[in-house]
C-alpha cells in the first residue's frame, strides 16, 4: 500500500482480540505487582519533595520540569499517604491506562499478528513496567502522548471537532508533564500533514488537527515565559547519551531497560536485544519498500522526537535518555512487531518472536526479585539501628538541601528525633574539621558519584569510620566517631 492509497477497512478477528485482552491483563498484573520491591531512588525523592512543598510553582523555579504531575502526586499523597507502594500505585494505574490506549492505537496503525505482538511487547516490556513503578512523570507522558496519537490517528480516519479537542487535551497534558512530552506536538502535525498529502483529510481538517496540537502547547506559554529561564539556570546536570551508540541502542532500551539496572548483559540478554534490532532493521526495509501510510506514521512517531532532540543539542546539551523520549517509545513495540512479522522464514520468525517475548518477560520478572534502585531504604534502616541520642545525620549529595534530605526524611518519618538530627553536609563538615575529637557521632548516607567523592573523603579524613555498609546500587551508609 503506498502513501497515496487510502487504507482498507480492517476486519475483526475475535481470536486476535482475545489474545490482546490476555496481553492487557498480563501487562496490568506486571505493572501492579511488586510496587514495594524497590527503594525510592533520588529522582523519586525529588518528586516527593516538590509535591509536598508549600509552593510547587516556586519550588519548580529551581527544578527543570513543568508542574502538572506534581499536583497529581500531591493530591494522591494527601489521600493515600506516602507509603512506597501506595505512591507507586498512581503511575502504575496510569501506565495500565496507557497500555489500553496503545492497544487501540495499534488497531489503527497495524493489523493481524503484528498488532497482537506489538501489544504483547508493550505489556511485557521491562522498560514500560519500570517506568510504571516510578514516582515520576514518565508514565503520565506515556498516557497523554499515546492519547494524543490515538486521537490523531482516529481523526485521520474520520475528522471531527471532538477528536480535535482530544488532540488538544493530549498534547497539553503531555507537555505539562515533561518538557519532552511536548514532542508529541510535531509528531501529530507531521502525521496530519502526511494524511493531507495522501488525501485522507482536507486542508481544513489538517488545519484543525495541527491547530489543536499547537494550541495544546500554547497553553503552557505563560508558564514557560515565567519559569523556563530560571529553570535553565538551576544547578542541575543534564543527562546526555553516548552519541551514535545510544541512538542505535535506543529501540532496545525503550523495550528492555537500562543495562545498568541488571549489571553486565548476559548472553541471553544480548540475544534478545539482537532479535529486537533485527525487527527494527526489517521494519526500516519495509518502510523503504512499501511506504504504507501507517508504517510512515509509526516511523515518524519514533524518529521525529529524536530529530528534535538532536536539533536542540545544537544550542544546548544533548538528551538521549530513553525515558525522556517517551513519545517515541509509543512506536517502538510496533516497529519491532511489524519488522519481525516480515521475517520470511516461518520457523525463524517463530523463534525470534518467542525469544523477544520470553526475554522481555524474564527481565520483567527480574524486577520483582530484589531491589535494583539506589537503596536509600536500607541505608535508613542502618541509621535507625545505630542511632543514639545526640547523633547527627548527613546526606552527602550535590543537590540543594531540600532535595538532598527528601528520601531520608521520607524513610525516617516514623522517627522524628532522627529527622530532627538531619544536617547539611557543609555545616557538619565544618564542625567536624574544627572539632575532630568531639564525641558527637555522624551518620552519613552517601550517593556515589564523581561530584560527591571529595566530600566523603573530607569527612573520612577528619573522623574514623567505625561502621559502613556495602555499596547498594550507589548508596552507602557510614558511621563516623
Structure, described:
The chain is mainly alpha-helical and 481 residues long. It has two domains: 14-366, no CATH class; 376-480. Helix content is 64%, strand content 4%. The protein is built from 23 helices and four strands. It has helices spanning 14-32, 42-51, 56-59, 68-80, 84-109, 112-124, 126-132, 138-157, 161-177, 184-197, 203-218, 221-232, 244-253, 267-290, 293-313, 326-329, 332-341, 346-366, 376-386, 401-411, 416-419, 425-434, 453-462, and strands spanning 392-396, 442-447, 465-468, 475-480. The protein has a four-stranded mixed β-sheet, with helices on both faces. A hairpin with a 6-residue loop joins strand 3 (465-468) and strand 4 (475-480).
Per-chain topology:
Layout: H1 14-32, H2 42-51, H3 56-59, H4 68-80, H5 84-109, H6 112-124, H7 126-132, H8 138-157, H9 161-177, H10 184-197, H11 203-218, H12 221-232, H13 244-253, H14 267-290, H15 293-313, H16 326-329, H17 332-341, H18 346-366, H19 376-386, E1 392-396, H20 401-411, H21 416-419, H22 425-434, E2 442-447, H23 453-462, E3 465-468, E4 475-480
Parallel strand pairs: 1-2
Antiparallel strand pairs: 2-4, 3-4
Amino acid at each position: 500500500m503506498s502513501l497515496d492509497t487510502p487504507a482498507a477497512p480492517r476486519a475483526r478477528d475475535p481470536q486476535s482480540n482475545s489474545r490482546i485482552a490476555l496481553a492487557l491483563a498480563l501487562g496490568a498484573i506486571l505493572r501492579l505487582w511488586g510496587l514495594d520491591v524497590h527503594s525510592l531512588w533520588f529522582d523519586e525523592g525529588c518528586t516527593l519533595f516538590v509535591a509536598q512543598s508549600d509552593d510547587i510553582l516556586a519550588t519548580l523555579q529551581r527544578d527543570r520540569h513543568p508542574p502538572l504531575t506534581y499536583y497529581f502526586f500531591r493530591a494522591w499523597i494527601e489521600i493515600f499517604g506516602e507509603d512506597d507502594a501506595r505512591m507507586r500505585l498512581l503511575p502504575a494505574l496510569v501506565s495500565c491506562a496507557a497500555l489500553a490506549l496503545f492497544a487501540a492505537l495499534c488497531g489503527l496503525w497495524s493489523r493481524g499478528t503484528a498488532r497482537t505482538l506489538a501489544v504483547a511487547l508493550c505489556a511485557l516490556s521491562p522498560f514500560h513496567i519500570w517506568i510504571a513503578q516510578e514516582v515520576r512523570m514518565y508514565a503520565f507522558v506515556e498516557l497523554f502522548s499515546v492519547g494524543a496519537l490515538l486521537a490523531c490517528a482516529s481523526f485521520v480516519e474520520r475528522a471531527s471537532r471532538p477528536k480535535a479537542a482530544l488532540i488538544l487535551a493530549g498534547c497539553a497534558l503531555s507537555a505539562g508533564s515533561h518538557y519532552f512530552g511536548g514532542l508529541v506536538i510535531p509528531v501529530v502535525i507531521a502525521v496530519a500533514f502526511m494524511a493531507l498529502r495522501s488525501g485522507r483529510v482536507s486542508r481544513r481538517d489538517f488545519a484543525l488537527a495541527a491547530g489543536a496540537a499547537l494550541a495544546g502547547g500554547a497553553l503552557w506559554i505563560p508558564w514557560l515565559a515565567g519559569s523556563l529561564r530560571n529553570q535553565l539556570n538551576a544547578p542541575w546536570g543534564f543527562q546526555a547519551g553516548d552519541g551514535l551508540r545510544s541512538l542505535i541502542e535506543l529501540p532496545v532500551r525503550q523495550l528492555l531497560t537500562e543495562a545498568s539496572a541488571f549489571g553486565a548483559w548476559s548472553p541471553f540478554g544480548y540475544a534478545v536485544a539482537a532479535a529486537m534490532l533485527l525487527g527494527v532493521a526489517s521494519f526500516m526495509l519495509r518502510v523503504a519498500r512499501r511506504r504504507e501510510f501507517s508504517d510512515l506514521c509509526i516511523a515518524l512517531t519514533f524518529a521525529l522526537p529524536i530529530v528534535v532532540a538532536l536539533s536542540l543539542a545544537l544550542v544546548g546539551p544533548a538528551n538521549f535518555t530513553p525515558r525522556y523520549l517517551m513519545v517515541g517509545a509509543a512506536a517502538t513495540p510496533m516497529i519491532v512487531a511489524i519488522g519481525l512479522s516480515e521475517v520470511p522464514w516461518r520457523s525463524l520468525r517463530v523463534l525470534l518472536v518467542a525469544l523477544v517475548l520470553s526475554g522481555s518477560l524474564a527481565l520483567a520478572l527480574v524486577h520483582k526479585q530484589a531491589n535494583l534502585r539506589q537503596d536509600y531504604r536500607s541505608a535508613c534502616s542502618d541509621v535507625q539501628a545505630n542511632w543514639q541520642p545526640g547523633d547527627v545525620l548527613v546526606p552527602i549529595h550535590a543537590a540543594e538541601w531540600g532535595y538532598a534530605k527528601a528520601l531520608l526524611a521520607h524513610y525516617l518519618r516514623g522517627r522524628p528525633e532522627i529527622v530532627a538530627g538531619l544536617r547539611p553536609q557543609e555545616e557538619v563538615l565544618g564542625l567536624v574539621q574544627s572539632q575532630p575529637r568531639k564525641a558527637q557521632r555522624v551518620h552519613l548516607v552517601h550517593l556515589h558519584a564523581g561530584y560527591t567523592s571529595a566530600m566523603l573523603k573530607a569527612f573520612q579524613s577528619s573522623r574514623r569510620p567505625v561502621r559502613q555498609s556495602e555499596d547498594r546500587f550507589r548508596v552507602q551508609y557510614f558511621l563516623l566517631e
